Amino acid sequence: MIEVIGLHKEFAENVLYDDYHIKFTAPKICIEAPNGQGKTTLLMMLVELEGRQSGQVLFSGKALTEPHKQVAIATDRIALPGFLTAQQIINLSANTLGCNWPTALIDGFNFNDFLNTRFDALSSGNQKKCQLILALMRDAPYLLLDEPSAALDQASIEYLLNLLDEYLTDKPEGQIIITCHEPAPFIEHGFECMPL
């Protein structure tokens, strides 16, 4: 369970969160809110990639000690090096984090033909697939996905939904949190929707 306690975040004079409290208790959560309401910023703060003025985030009652091992995130907010090929980026991540080469994920997302393409030359859908592969290959207990179905083809959405159905099988303390504008397919796969 992820719990946010007394979160305060502002940009200049725009207060995004003021003494914000929330408990994400369901195993699979879909956060709903209009654009600009802070969904992506919240995910980034949960994984400590975005600062906050005050507040605390607890994972199963504790602060993160090794975020890179405990939480995986896929979001457009994390800039990947556009001059590297997708294969180089995946290799770099696998070597840095000690992950195996994600053959099944690459096959499942039909991504083999794009491995030798520079990241900045990939379509938005294939950039999304690369981001998802990088997050999913880590097999972290907590998985945060920002608009995971955006720009994906229908076959890739179905593959992702099936992956998420099984993701927590061996992670009893784990949790998946996504943001999404079209939650219906995720609701059908057991996600609980929560407004921001």
Question: Would you write up a description of this structure?
Answer:
The structure is a single chain. It is built from 7 helices and 8 strands; from the N terminus they run E-E-E-H-E-H-E-H-H-H-E-H-E-H-E. It has helices at residues 39-46, 67-70, 86-97, 103-108, 124-136, 154-167, 184-188, and strands at residues 2-11, 14-24, 28-32, 54-59, 71-74, 142-146, 175-179, 192-195. Strands 5-6-7-3-8 form a 5-stranded parallel β-sheet. Strands 2-1-4 form a 3-stranded antiparallel β-sheet, with no helix packed on it.
Give structural attributes.
196 residues; Rossmann fold; three-stranded antiparallel beta sheet; 8 strands
Give the arrangement of secondary structure elements.
Layout: E1 2-11, E2 14-24, E3 28-32, H1 39-46, E4 54-59, H2 67-70, E5 71-74, H3 86-97, H4 103-108, H5 124-136, E6 142-146, H6 154-167, E7 175-179, H7 184-188, E8 192-195
Parallel strand pairs: 3-7, 3-8, 5-6, 6-7
Antiparallel strand pairs: 1-2, 1-4
